[in-house]
Amino acid sequence: MVAHMIKIVILDGFTAVGKAPADDLAWKGLNDLGLVKVYDRTKPQETVKRAADADIVLTNKVVLNSEVIAQLPHLKYIGVLATGYNVVDIDAANQRGIIVTNVPAYSTESVAQMVFAHLLTVTNRTEHYAVANRSGRWSTNPDFCYWDTELTELAGKTFGIVGLGNIGSRVAQIALAFGMKVQALTSKTADTMPEGISKVSLEDLLSTSDVISLHCPLTDSTRHLIDSQTLKQMKATAILINTGRGPLVDDQAVADALAKGHLSAFCADVLTEEPPSIANPLLQQPRAYITPHIAWATKESRSRLIQVATDNVRMFLKGEPQNMV
After folding, report:
1. Active site residue 170
2. Which of 29, 46, 78, 265 has the highest count of CB atoms within 10 angstroms of its CB?
3. Which residues does 163 contact at the CB level (< 8 Å), separation at least 6?
4. 219 SS3 class
């Protein structure tokens, strides 16, 4: 294949670039590698038509299943614009000799930061006070200060982490820096645990943690890891954080626990259905703090994503593919 003849199609490029200026975050690096066509979004029924002549397809959330792959005769490479690659039928790609790559660990720092943005939202409520003060609350206060929410110090509290991969490990480091006691449910053996982190069972983690943060993969065994039964094992004062995968928790069970006062707060950047139904019970809970899957979306993280995705294509064209899945 001659580089300038390579046809590259990006099926859903909008979320990676967003509203950044054209000369800020863009796919310029790919233009040196082939003829690039970028679609902001692609509906399922549009996928085959848009990718029909492509040698290379990049996708974030657009599904490339066996039926779609079978209808793309020129396809030689699929680049997933994310770490997870469940949107691609890997077996079907392998049968065709199609290389599939992902972008590992690009968002570790940003996701870890979001965990603590959520946690500090609950413990310090800075936005609540900032909004109130714009309306004159502090200006009309008889004392030099006021507080109408509980304010909580993190030092000395117990932080439980489910899954000690790249993100879970970084979260642990930050929790330790806050002076928290850190424990984890992990496949790591006790003698290989990072310094300062205790290995515990799920039961112990649930019953003793003041904060629980989910960072494990979504599998049959972890789906609804947090449900009505496991919620009963947690402290009523506990804060639950999910920046992993939405289905790790049972939305209704968490909403019910919040409503009954059996859980102090739920913070999530991911939900079972995205975008969520307006009827999702968590959206109406005042102690549920939901962000729209943006932990990965800092400018720095998106820059890394685009750069690694471009490098992946470049290395594939050199015959030295990297980050294969």
Report:
1. no
2. 78
3. 184, 185, 186, 214, 215, 216, 217, 244
4. coil
* Adjacent-strand bridge partners of 160: 183, 212
Active-site hit among 67, 150, 273, 274: 274
3-state SS class at 230: helix
Is 224 known to be catalytic? Answer: no
Query: Could you say which of 170, 215, 245, 302 is catalytic?
Result: 245
Which helix (H) or strand (E) is 56 found in, with range?
Answer: strand 56-59
Structure tokens at 276: 């969520």
Contact residues for 274 (Cβ-Cβ < 8 A; gap 6+): 246, 293
pLDDT, one tens digit per residue, over 221-275 is 999 999 999 999 999 999 999 999 999 999 999 999 999 999 999 999 999 999 9
Q: What is the mean pLDDT of residues 193-209?
A: 97
Question: Catalytic: which of 96, 224, 262, 293?
Answer: 293
- 67 CB neighbour count, 10 Å cutoff: 12
Q: Kindly list the distances between the CA atom of residue 115 and the CA atoms of 19, 139, 232, 233, 321, in Å, as whole numbers in the listed order.
A: 24, 32, 23, 22, 33
Tokens standing for residue 154: 């993190």
Q: Which two tokens stand for residue 301?
A: 């993280």
CA-to-CA dists, residue 224 to 34, 155, 231, 247, 291, angstroms: 43, 30, 11, 6, 20
Confidence of residue 21 (pLDDT cuts 50, 70, 90): very low
pTM score > 0.90 for this model?
A: yes
Whether 293 is catalytic is yes
What is the widest separation between alpha-carbon atoms in the chain?
Answer: 76
**CA 88 to CA 92: how far, in whole Å?**
9
